[in-house]
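Sat 14:20. Reprocessing the chain from the morning session after the first attempt stalled halfway. Input below, unchanged.
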Amino acid sequence: MGSTSAPKNDGLGRRDLIKRSAALGLISVPTMSFLSACASSGGDSTDNDKPKGEKTKDNPFGVAKGGKIDVVVFKGGYGDEYAKAWEASFNKKWGITATHTGTQEITGKLQPRFNAGNPPDIVDDSGAQKIKIDVLYKNDQLLDLAEVLDAPSVDDPNKKVRDTLIPGTLDPGLQEGKVVALNYIYTVWGLWYSGKLFKEKGWTEPKTWDEFLAICKEATAQGIGGLAHQGKYPYYINVAIMDLIAKTGGLEAMKAIDNLDPKAFVGSDAAKQAVEAIYEVVEKGYLMPGTNGLEHTESQTRWNQYKAAFITCGSWLENEQIKQTPADFDMKFMPMPLLPGSKMPYEAIRAGSGEPFIIPSKAKNLAEAKEFMRMMLSKEWSTLFAKEANSLTILADGVDPSVKLRPGTQSTVEASKKAGPNTFRYLYTEWYSEMDTEIQNASNELMAKRIQPAEWLKRAQAAVDKAAKDPASKKNRRD
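Finished this time. Tokens:
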């Protein structure tokens, strides 16, 4: 990877996931003031003043025994127990003591540290309060990860780290052709439902939008919401809108958005059909009552209480809701149903890498941070993650077959197998955070019936056009 644009084959899951599934035994937001603050931050790394270890294939960055590392992890859907297991392993190998912080307040806790030139050594920069990757990059706050990706693999020193990864999974971490964020977790996005509820009601997984609406109608008549979404975070309803655009218009409709096309939204039949389909759910009263005003976990918990038939989310959902999910809930993942004339099959899903890990360029323990990331991409640490977080990583064949996944996560693996090469992944969310926020804001207005689909399309296109005026946008392109 590491090219100046995303690969011409846009199926980011690809057939490597099938091979990986076989190994598992499954088949035979910062403000503009922060932008200014980042630009003014100073301070030099003291890494050059520290004792150095001998650089070898087993120690490519010259880590010295007995050092320190400062690790900050987003404590959300995947928790942070996996990181504690990594830190224990790191200490056992190198005698390095970790300062561990697990939090959902990434911006709140880290903004002052970046401003002061004293950032952590490695960060899981995720969640609703993440620091925007493109903002950090534009202000020279991120390390180019090429040195880590070109280092010898822990498992096979004859291979580079980058050559052990599922193809396409580095792409979301690209900024102007450089990989500055490692999206570590293989993630699937779509709709979720309770197998138990569906069995009791006699419902079957809907493959068309009309079938989806029919279940929503029947559920609503029985006092159950049709669709729940995490209203205070419109990112989640955009999963449905953007999936429908891609599946209806094909990869060209998706790439038009990433490439800031002047007809990405206004003038796109796929975008028009998609947003009108979502608005139909709102107009007909099929939303779970109150969902527009709920936090993500509040909405998800009500869904776990059988107060809605469907919810939109990514594959971290099961782990995030483990304490709130009844033992017999039988969580299931499904692809977005098809609108008439869709260019992609029902089995097509949004899939690829998520959960970005970064190394700040001003980190004081750069050698340790780079080695920590290299070890993240070992089979040992990938398996530790799968055990603790119930999820797959971007390391091809990286999880020991003995690891047993929970029902919902296993259903995402099965869905990925059925999708095969029919996977897609947007990149505008990482390339253009301001545009992403403006589209989310429009979706928030749409779901509250304060605007209608035509206005949503107009606002989304305006966000695209604004991003396209930035000269730097010409360096990000999908072919």
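The CA atoms of residues 468 and 474 lie 8 Å apart.
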